Amino acid sequence: MKKTLRPHPRLFLLFFLLTLILAACGNGTTASSNSNDNNSPVTVHLGYFPNITHAVALVGVAQGTFQKALGKNQLSTKTFNAGPDLINALLAGDIDIGYAGPNPAINGYVKSHGEALRIIAGASSGGALLIVRPEANIKSPADLSGKKIADPQIGGTQDISLRHYLQQHNLKSVDKGGTVQIVATDNSNIVTLFSQGQIDGAWVPEPYASRLVLNAHGKVFVDERTLWPNGKFVTTNVVVRKAFLDQHPTIVSEFLQAHVDTVQFINSHLDEAKKLVNEQIQKVPGGKALSQKLLDQAFSNLDITYDPLASTLYKAADSAYQLGLLGDSKPDLSHIYSLDALNSVLAAKGLQKVATS
Asked: Is this structure's pTM higher than 0.70?
């Protein structure tokens, strides 16, 4: 009878160790593959409004500045009417970087418990006004009682500004038991309603404020700059999905480089920038060319800046909280800003850094 050979226990141990080594090598190959995947082209989804308060986005897209800065990565753009819609798209992952007002950014941050987004730069200051029809006979804040006043969207930056203004003058909107009817609708529709006499006034951003004045014979009742120290307050921020920032910090830095470059271009080549903005506004469905007079007036009502003017965002948050729009407790906004990348760009250009306070 033949003798059966039994494997020596040491051979089992050797085989086991070799298996572990091969597995580790395999995992190393997989990790390397994943790393290579991360270096493949990324599509950056950018959102903004066809408004003059979003001039940086319009000019950056028109000149190809963003795309050039992103290199092999691709830029995909989408326009919105107001901030809440843009922030909802960002929360859903449909856009990665967006230009939006302070209040929608605050709402998105609070809604996600501080997890969904970060503000990485400013884009504009000012450029929001309350325009009224002369026939409405609005001479003082008290005259707003019983009137219909429009703004772009409930919860948007102009909506909060309007509601806070009413509160400061002992007035409330109808939906809060008061006497002022707030009509939330698209900016373009506001112009139509105003011209037809179906609303008495509107708190709107540029160029719609100037359109109401020059094309619909409206009168400036409140230039929001007069309500802020030194006439400065943030109208538009640059926001980013935190997940995108964490995954692609280099891409975000490249975008901010283009953002700062575009701000500087607008401020040093204003006439050319106006033409580019006008061209971009016309490309949006229903967009109409703006006259030179309207462009000049609209741009005179705002400042283009990369400074997020953080202290004014905190004040806007206080206003929203006082209106009961941010829950029962005052939210902690201590981590809403992520400005290191912006400040690195500014330092490289020899420009003064911006602060979060």
From this structure: yes
